[in-house]
């Protein structure tokens, strides 16, 4: 094959790949979020919710939900030509907590999804990332029918540190989810620049 000058000069850029976790309580929309932005067919590990699980799997507000993630979701999004995110959605049920440490290995940052109808479900995710020093952003998934609260109100309810980004999103909508992912990446990069600067002074 003969390459022209222009194609020779345009060497494909090797993108930087970053790993981002998508966490949050049961049924908050993690699998939906990964599916909404992924440019590859997302890998899912969904199993049917069963009658036996009814007492523990509270689907109030997401009555159409009939499956749950049992290992992880995996997707990919190219934010820029030279920046690719690998998204790992965690399982929401408490009995899969043992998978989190595995999934969190090498993560640059995380999104904690929250639903204002059951805000307390995201506390465990926030605690997890705070304790491990993994930068995260909180994204409120605005379900129809849920009361809307301004971001500062949610921030206060969650007692978030000032620097933690808090955004409102619709997990089904690619654009709003992209904004959340950009916020996490910017936050994580700013934090690591801060740390480097502190280490050198
Ligand atoms: N109305 C509305 N429904 C949503 C939204 N996001 C998710 N859903 C629905 O809510 C249900 C739960 O979504 P999932 O994406 O499976 O939630 P999940 O957090 O992955 O759940 P687990 O893996 O079981 O913890 C599904 O039936 C979705 O169709 C949203 O933004 N708005
Ligand atoms: Mg899921």
Descriptive report:
The chain is of the alpha/beta class. The protein has one domain: 3-Layer(aba) Sandwich (Rossmann fold). 31% of the residues lie in helices and 23% in strands. The chain has 6 helices and 8 strands, in the order αβαββββαβαβαβα. The protein has a 6-stranded mixed sheet with strand order 4-5-1-6-7-8, sandwiched between helices. Residues 30-31, 69, 73, 89, 92 line the site of magnesium ion.
Helix content: 25-40%
* Largest sheet, strands/sense/barrel: 6 strands, mixed
Order of helices and strands: HEHEEEEHEHEHEH
Give start-end ranges of low-pLDDT stretches.
Answer: none
Widest beta sheet: strand line-up: 4-5-1-6-7-8
The end-to-end span amounts to 53 Å
Helix tally?
A: 6
Compute the number of strand runs. Answer: 8
SS-based structural class? alpha/beta
CATH evolutionary superfamily: P-loop containing nucleotide triphosphate hydrolases
Q: How many distinct domains?
A: 1
Bound molecules: guanosine-5'-triphosphate, magnesium ion
Mean model confidence by pLDDT: 91
> What's the level 1 CATH class?
Alpha Beta
Fold-level CATH name = Rossmann fold
CA radius of gyration is 18 Å
Instruction: Kindly estimate the percentage of residues that lie in beta strands according to DSSP.
Output: 15-25%
Form type: globular
Please state the second-level CATH architecture.
3-Layer(aba) Sandwich
Task: Give a quick summary of the entry.
The chain has 201 residues and is of the alpha/beta class. It has helices spanning 5-9, 30-37, 100-104, 123-132, 151-158, 174-200; strands at residues 16-24, 46-48, 67-69, 73-80, 83-89, 109-114, 136-141, 166-169.
């Amino acid at each position: 094959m003969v390459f022209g000058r222009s194609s020779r000069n345009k060497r494909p850029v090797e993108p930087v790949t970053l790993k981002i976790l998508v966490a949050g309580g049961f049924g908050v929309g993690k699998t939906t979020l990964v599916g909404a932005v992924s440019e590859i067919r997302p890998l899912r590990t969904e199993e049917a919710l069963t009658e036996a699980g009814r007492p523990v799997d509270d689907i109030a507000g997401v009555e159409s939900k009939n499956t749950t993630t049992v290992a992880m979701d995996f997707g990919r999004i190219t934010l820029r030509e030279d920046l690719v995110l690998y998204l790992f959605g965690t399982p929401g049920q408490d009995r899969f907590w043992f998978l989190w440490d595995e999934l969190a290995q090498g993560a640059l940052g995380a999104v904690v999804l929250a639903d204002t109808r059951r805000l307390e479900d995201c506390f465990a995710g926030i605690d997890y990332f705070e304790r491990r020093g993994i930068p995260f952003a909180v994204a409120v998934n605005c379900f129809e029918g849920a009361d809307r609260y301004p971001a500062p109100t949610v921030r206060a309810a969650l007692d978030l540190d000032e620097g933690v980004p808090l955004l409102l999103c619709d997990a089904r909508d690619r654009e709003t989810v992209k904004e959340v992912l950009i916020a996490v990446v910017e936050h994580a990069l700013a934090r690591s620049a801060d740390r480097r600067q502190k280490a050198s002074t």
